[in-house]
Every structure is written in structure tokens, then in C-alpha cells.
Amino acid sequence: MAGFLSDLVQYRQLLLMIMVLGIGGTHLSGFQMSVINYTSPYIQKFINETWLERYGSVLHQETLTLLWSFIVSVYCVGGMIGCLCSGYLTAKYGKKKCLLFNDVVLIVATLHTGFSRRAKSFEMILIGRFLEGIGAGIHMNAHVQYAGEISPKKLRGFVNVTSSVFLALGKAVARILGLRDLLGTEDMWNVLLSFSGLVALIQLLFLPFFPESPPYLLLQKGDKAGCLKAMKQLWGEGNYHTEFDDMMKEKAVTKGTKIMNVLEVLKEPSVYPQLSTMLLLLLSLQLCGLSAITFYTSEIFQTASLQESTIPYVSLGVAISELISIIFCSSIIDHFGRRILLWGGYLLMALILVLLETSLLLSDQFLWMRYGSVILIFLFIIAYGIGPAGAVASVMNEIFTLSTRCFLVLFASSSLLLSWSFQRFSSTCSSQKQKGSQPPKSQKNSKHADLRRNVIRLWRRMLPKKRHSAPSSDRPP
After folding, report:
1. Kind and range of the H or E run holding 194
2. Beta carbons of 395 and 277 less than 8 angstroms apart
3. Cα(407)–Cα(83) distance, rounded to whole angstroms?
4. I need a labelling partner for 404 at 20 to 30 A (CA). Which of 58, 70, 75, 126 fits?
5. Contacts of 467 (CB under 8 A, 6+ apart)
6. What are the CA-CA distances from residue 199 to residues 22, 29, 180, 409 (Å)?
7. CA 375 and chain centroid, separation
8. Rounded to 5 degrees, what are φ and ψ at 25?
9. Is 210 exposed, middle or buried (0-12, 13-18, 19+ CB in 10 A)?
10. What angle do CA 204, 205, 211 make, to 5 degrees?
């Protein structure tokens, strides 16, 4: 740990650049994905009031839900477009210029969302969210590649994990600012949506003082002097022959090879092992249970008899736990390696999920198990942060060369956006069903209790055998 801290002091200029990259990179993605949850009721009310003022009639609930779905999904549509464009833009103009141009797009987007309330136009929110989605697709790809290319060899794992650190930081910042004590109010929701423009402005002002990535200057531009100058500016004075020789070897291997597009990568047999590894990592990340935990967290907190006013603060604690655990992962990943963190993280998560399911099934018989469920959620998030959250990003960024890395990041970013859009779509459908016809409370509770008792009987019969996951209908309402 002492050696790691001394390295951070030596590479302090690199740390400054990582911070500037992060706040305008994946930090914005995490913020924009989470902040929409806290502005949802206020935006829907704003749409209704605007429609009433224009046309003299109140919107039907189905139409309001449709417009709200457009606002949520247009971000993902813009994100996919940004992902598809990012590979060409970063190869032609470099990561630095792409991020600076992207900051301008984000500032324009936040001007639309920020002034939509004064202009009494919910269409401006649609435009702003679409532009934010395009910006997210570009800066997620550019940030991950940029961070991986500016890292020295002995800090490569630490620097690669910082993209996950800033993603978690964005989620935490959105939850903090979204509290009703701060900007999560009916009067300030447009200011909350505009916060990402301030962050983009900070990056726009400070990023020009940092160089383009050394591998890009050498491999794409053929500028050896510029490459060495960038390395000294970022890493300080020292002997960096090892890193320079590695880049020269890669240049010799890929001589005459340009940045590949998606079809060219898929047709190249030499990258099939890396593609298989990437698909396995992304699949494990999507199916590890994190989406289910995120979706049902508030309901589990309600089952534990937590007050409605304290649930946002407990959820904030979950986000902060994720952030701290990923920061810890970044400090140990170069020491323990990626494989140990992946295996250990997934094993812990699997064990915690079994315990969590058991505690939910037996929560009616043992009331203290409801509080155990809350603790297990925190432990699950911590295991995820220490293991897969950081290690997956590091592995995927290291197994590809510069010519194929654009495709990797494009695929990973698209996977993240699709996963988030599916969660939001499920959340919208769930809330719509709850607003529809609901059975009486007593009837609903009795049916739920009968189901729970039957499942507990089956669970006890299965104890000597292999355990199976309980059906989703057994989750607390």
C-alpha cells in the first residue's frame, strides 16, 4: 500500500487528468441514468400542466405514460447513435477533441432541459435528453479508451478501474442532489437536470491543458516526439523505455492497419478469443443479479418497516458503499490480479443472494430477518464493487489492441445502455400496473401470505436437495 501511495504522488499530473476525464466521462453517464428517477413525478406533472394550459384538457394517463416513456427511452436511442459514431470520431480526431466537442453538445442539451420549464415546453426535455444520450455514447467510449491509453504499465489496472469509480460517483451524486432537502423538489427539478452541463463546462475548461494519449500520437499520427512529450507531461521525468518499446512493438505488428470498424472486427479470426472473453464477462455482469437487486431495493426496504422518508437516505448509503468498494478495488487490483477479484466477487455475490432469498422467504416467521435483508443488500453491493465492477472494465480494456479497442468499448457501452433502458422500461410498466386496478389490501395480503406459506413448505422440502431460486412472485410487494 505504501508503494501504491508513493506511485500516486509521483504520477500526480496523471491523477489530475484522470479526475478531469472522469467528471466529464462516465460520471455524467451515472448521473444522467440515476437523476431521472428523482425528477420523474415532477416532469410528469409539468407535462400535464403544460398540456392543460395549451389545449384546455387534462392528458389521459396512457398518453402521459407514453410521453414519459419517450423522455426515458430517447436517452438510450441517442446513446446508441453516440456509440456508433464514437469509433469513427475518436479514430479520426482523437479522444481529446471528441470529448471537447462532446462537452459543447452536453451544454446545449442542458440548456434545453434547464429552460424547458420557463419556456413551458416539454419538447425541450425530449431534445435535451436525446442530445445527452448522444453525448453519453461518445464520452463513455472516449473516456474508457483515453484512460487506458494514458496509464503507465504498473498502474494500468488502477487507471482502468477509474471509469467504474466515476460511474458509481455519478450515481451517488445524483442520489445526493436528488434528495428533497436539496434539488429533488418541484421547484428545482430543472436545475437538477442541468447539473451535468456544469460538469461538462469544467471539463471543457481544463481538458485543453492535458495532452492527447501517447499511443494515439505514436500509432495513429506517427509522432514519436509528441508521444514522448506526452509521457513526460503525464508521468513526470523518468525512464519509460518499457512502455515506449511496447508501443513500438504494437506499431510493428499493426503496421498498415487502421482502426477497425465493427464488421472488420467480426471478420478477423485473430480476435475471436478476445471477443469470447468479452462476451462472457458482459454476460456474467448482466446476469449477476445486480439489476434485480437495484429494481427491488426500495421494496425490500419497505418490507423491513423502514419509514418512507428514510428510504432515500438508505439508498444513498447503498450508492456510497458501491463507490467506496470500487475505490478499494482500484487500489488492490494490480496487487491481487483480475482473476482473483472476479472469482472472489462472484462467489461472494452468489452466497449473499442465497442468504438474501432465504431471509425474504422466512421474513414472516422471523421479523429480524427483514433487517438482515437490508444488511445483505449492502454486502452484495460491496462484493460487486470489490470484484466485477472494477475487474471487468480493466480486463476488457487490456485484452484488445488499439485497432480493435473501439469496437470493444462500443459493445460494452451499448450493453450498459440497453440494460439501463430495460430496467427503466420495467419500472415504468410496474408503476403503471400499480396505478391500475389493484385488489383490496386485505385480499392482496391474504393471497400473498398463502403464496409465501406454500413456498416456505416447498423450500423446506428442498433443503436436502439442490437449492433453486424462488420465483419472482415471492418477492415482497
Report:
1. none
2. yes
3. 9
4. 75
5. 354
6. 10, 12, 21, 23
7. 23
8. -115, -115
9. buried
10. 80
Q: Dig out the grid coordinates for 279 from the structure.
A: 462476451
Q: Are 182 and 176 in contact (CB under 8 A)?
A: yes
Find cell 443472494 and name the residue: 353
Nearest to 141 by CA among 102, 94, 200, 83: 83
* DSSP-based three-state secondary structure for 138: helix
Residue 189: closest CA among 172, 199, 177 = 177
Q: Residue written as cell 513526470?
A: 236
Q: Check if the beta carbon of residue 192 is closer than 8 Å to that of residue 184.
A: yes
Residue 437 to residues 40, 123, 433, 434, 474, Cα–Cα distance (Å) = 22, 31, 7, 7, 20
Alpha carbon 71 to chain centroid distance? Answer: 19
Question: C-alpha grid cell for residue 164?
Answer: 467504474
Three cell numbers written together for 292: 434485480
Decide if 345 contacts 383 (C-beta within 8 A).
Answer: yes
Question: Which residue, chain included where needed, has cell 479522444?
Answer: 95
**Each residue's pLDDT expressed in tens, for the chain with a length of 477 residues:** 556 566 666 778 889 999 999 998 889 988 988 888 888 889 988 998 898 888 888 888 888 888 888 888 888 888 888 888 887 888 788 889 999 999 999 999 999 999 998 898 889 999 999 999 999 888 888 888 888 888 888 888 888 899 899 999 999 999 999 888 888 888 889 899 989 999 999 999 999 999 998 888 887 788 888 888 888 888 887 777 777 777 787 777 666 556 666 677 777 787 788 888 888 888 888 888 887 787 777 778 877 777 777 888 888 899 999 999 999 998 888 888 888 999 999 999 999 999 988 888 887 788 788 888 889 999 999 999 998 988 888 888 777 776 666 666 666 666 666 666 656 555 555 555 445 444 444 444 444 454 455 445 444 544 544 444 444 444 443
CA distances from 476 to 31, 241, 287, 303, 391 (A): 28, 59, 21, 7, 32
Alpha-carbon gap, residue 234 to 216, rounded angstroms: 14
Q: Which three cell numbers, joined as nine digits, stand for 273?
A: 478469443
Q: What is the CA radius of gyration of the chain?
A: 24
Instruction: Write out the DSSP string of 56-107.
Output: SSPPPHHHHHHHHHHHHHHHHHHHHHHHHHHHHHHHHH-HHHHHHHHHHHHH
Chain centroid to CA 184: 21
Residues in the chain: 477
Q: Which of 411, 290, 401, 263 lies closest to 352, judged by CA?
A: 290
